[in-house]
Structure formats: structure tokens, C-alpha cells
Amino acid sequence: MPEQQPPPYLRIADELRRRIAEREWEPGDRLPSRAQIGQEYGVGENVVRRAQELLISQGALEGRAGSGTFVAELRQRVRMVRSAAREQPGGSPFRADMKAVGRNGGWESRTDAKVPAPAEIAARLGIGEGELCVRTVYEFLADGRPVQLSTSWEPYDLTGGTLVVLPEGGPHAGAGVVNRMAEIGVTVSHAVEQPEPRQATAEEASLLGIQKAAFVTHIRRTYYSDQGRPVETADIVVPAGLCEIVYEIPISR
Amino acid sequence: MPEQQPPPYLRIADELRRRIAEREWEPGDRLPSRAQIGQEYGVGENVVRRAQELLISQGALEGRAGSGTFVAELRQRVRMVRSAAREQPGGSPFRADMKAVGRNGGWESRTDAKVPAPAEIAARLGIGEGELCVRTVYEFLADGRPVQLSTSWEPYDLTGGTLVVLPEGGPHAGAGVVNRMAEIGVTVSHAVEQPEPRQATAEEASLLGIQKAAFVTHIRRTYYSDQGRPVETADIVVPAGLCEIVYEIPISR
DNA sequence: TCGAATTTGTGCGTATGTATC
DNA sequence: GGATACATACGCACAAATTCG
């Protein structure tokens, strides 16, 4: 029985991995072109491409069209702690996360008031499809570079006519959902987060400056009032290569 | 300037999506062969393959080698709630999750005592590389079908010589980490979970009965004692198609 | 029981598009 | 604008799995 050997593209992938591990190419360096590498090992360009795609999907390489294939820079990932202690009076959770890793946090946002709720959002907020919402699109930055995206929805009939109707406007701008709701007498008692793995869309990849099909965690988060009513829900896109997500769970017995 | 049209494989993908949505093929049905579909639309087999691969990666189709391509059955996903209230005296968290969705929970496990800790595990447990651990590999089942994998590590010098040294043996078998540690006077105060998105390995896919590169959430979980010492760490593989993960976070202000 | 036909899955080449320098 | 390099689309050949006569 003949012992089968691994396919060529896996052998090339191992070779590339080895040469990177041995620091023949340093982070940021450009690899030789696929034609060159292929000739060196006596395989077609396509075999090299498959090998590189594998390492790209694992985050070890980075392909730049028209420029070359590069050894990925190992950037320190942003640590996002999600726990009960996260919500502090007066502060923003995101800024606290950034401060903890010594980076300068900030964000850009764009709010559209009175957007009809799509079906899924309506279900999550417990309202009818098409009822009006305040939608805010966020782009969170660390040292000026985008590291996280979020789209937030709040029922308009909850905040409409109050000072906190605009999450990023008015006297309570940027204070966070919990603090803003407290201003209008709504006590937020708990959050539910549902993380799902998927790949970044082309648009998300472009906004975040990451590879096209990089892995992201898509978190559906909903804040509930102490009356059990959903008061806000958001779709948060966290790229695995830029952020690590940490849940701290207290144990009560 | 000529208006560019989408590539053929995306057009075929849309066609297949439409015919599935219109219930021309029901969940579980087999699609016509690639050759047939290709002929019908006047494209090559490979275009159909690319279109099907796209829908497979999105979970809408399922390919079975030698058999055919099938419309995916929409099975109800297992909801796994991860919160402070999860740990109950005397019960197992997993069985509670299963009961909540009306399914019969269970698991199989295999324990190896005195396994030297690999570097990453040692770092997570705060012990030296190569120090001995008790390693337990779990396969969690819902109605007899595997829905989750887990590999758990406990430092041997913590439980060695006690009745709870084997997680799934002795009088406290299957009681869970928190309850077992309590038996030897160790109070577990909190857990830290770090979810990362990735694709299933071939082995995981085979064990879980899912498609080869399906999305999974890989959770690194560590339990800490009230002294701040890590007492257990585990790598948990949760397939997105079978389970949904829910974190409940209380808000304290 | 076994082998042939069918079908999906994999590996790899070529042509073309597109971004960068 | 040309040269270079990666990205995409598509086709062919073959392997592996399944089914069926």
C-alpha cells in the first residue's frame, strides 16, 4: 500500500511557515512573488497561491493587490472586557477598555432619527415591524484606527421628545445607553449578548482595514429595563485580528 | 462606459437561493446534479460548484460526497446561557441548558490523569510548562447527537489525592467544576470566557457531524478561585449551526 | 458480493481583471 | 502608460464517497 504524501500546496505552506518562523522574513517584509517562489520549489503559481491563501486565512500573511504578499505585523489586540462592572456612572465602556490597554479610544457616529424598524430589529426590541427607531452607526477607533463597528437601535417612542433622544447629541452625548436611560427614569437591569462567528463582508473589511474574509464575531446585544422591556439593541462587529473579547462571569452559589 | 454585470457564479447562486426560498426544493431535498443545473443555465459545472460552495458556507446547502447536494435541514439550535446563575448546587450546567430547550442532554468523556501541561495551558493555569494536569475530553450530546466539544485541564497538584481528582469519576462525577472544587474547600468566585471565531478543523467537523469548514466559536474558559488562582481551564468548541451562545450580563451601577 | 456509474470534493492550470509602483 | 503582482473566474482531470444493479 503506497503511503500518500500531502498535496504540494500544503508542503509549500509548511515551507513558508518555517521560513517566517525562522525570521528569514520579518513582520512587514514582502515575500518574493508567486512566480519566483513557484520556480524555486518547482510548482505552479497557483500552488503557491493556495498555500498563501491558507496562511492569510490564519493571519500569518497579508496580501496587497498590486503590491505583494507580506508577513503580517503582529499588532497588539484590543482587549474588550464585557462584565457587570463594565457600566460605570459617567464613563463610556469603550474608553475604559482602551485606557486599560494604553491606547487612545474614540469613535465616530452618525444618527438617523425615525428609521422604520426592520423585522429582525423589531423582534429584538419587542415592537412592531416598521415602528420608528433612532438608529446610530458607530465606528470605534483605537489610536485613530477603526477596531470595531456597531449599529444601535432604540425605539423612538421611548426617548422621543426627551433630551436623550440622540445618543451622540445633547447634554448626555456619549454617556452610554445605561446612563442615558437613567436620565429619563429608565433603569437598565441587564444586557444579553449573543456572539456569532462569521466572516467580514467586503464593506466591513474595507471600513476596518482588514483582509476581505477575515473572521469576526458578530454580537447581537440587547439592553433590558428592570421592567423587562428591551430599550436598545445593537449589532456589533468585532474583528478577531484586532480585538479580543473577554466575558467575566461572577459565580454565585 | 459599459455597465458591468455580476459574475455568472453569483447569478447562479441567486437563482438557487430563490428556488430554495420559493420552496421548489424543501429542506432535506436533493438538488439536481451540477451537470444538470449547469446545462439548464448554460454555464459550466464549475460555475455551479462555486455557487453551491457559497451557499454551503452560508449554511443554506449541504454537500454530501458521492450522494448529492441537499437543502440544509433547519434544526433548532441549542441555546446555551452563560451567566452567573448558571452554576447551581448539585446540577450540571449543560443538562440545565438542554432541559430549557426540551432536549435530552448528556455527554461522553475520557480522562487522562497526569498529563504534562502544554505551554498555552500552563500559562492559563499559572503553572510551569510540563507540570502535571488532569485532562478530560468531553463530547456533549443533545438527543444523542454531539453538539459541543470541550477539553478541560485541571492542575494535578490541586486535586491530586482527593476524591474529586477525576471530574467524571468518584462520588462527585459530573457535578461540574464549581461543585467539585467546593468539596475540597476551594471556592470558585468567577469565570473568564474568551470567545474567538474560527472554522472547524476536519476532526472537529467529523466529530460534530457538520460541514468541513463550518463556523465555530472557540471559547477559552478559565475558572478562578476566590484567592485569584486559576483552578480549571477549558477549550470549548461550539458550532454556530448547532448552538447559540447567550451571555446574560447584570448591570450594576 | 462486487463493480460500474454517478456525484461531490480537491488540486492545479490558464485567462483576465485590477491595484500599485 | 507600462510593468509587475495579486485577485478572480473558470475549466479540466482525478480522487473519494455513495448508490445501485
Automatic annotation (TrEMBL), chains A, B:
GO molecular function, one term: DNA-binding transcription factor activity
Family matches, as Pfam families: GntR, UTRA
Keyword Transcription regulation: yes
Chain ranges of the HTH gntR-type domain: 6-74
Single GO BP term: negative regulation of DNA-templated transcription
UniProt-listed InterPro entries: Bact_HTH_transcr_reg, Chorismate_lyase_/UTRA_dom_sf, Tscrpt_reg_HTH_GntR, UTRA, WH-like_DNA-bd_sf, WH_DNA-bd_sf
Keywords: DNA-binding, Transcription, Transcription regulation
Superkingdom of the organism of origin: Bacteria
Protein name: GntR family transcriptional regulator
Lineage, highest ranks first: Bacteria, Bacillati, Actinomycetota, Actinomycetes, Kitasatosporales
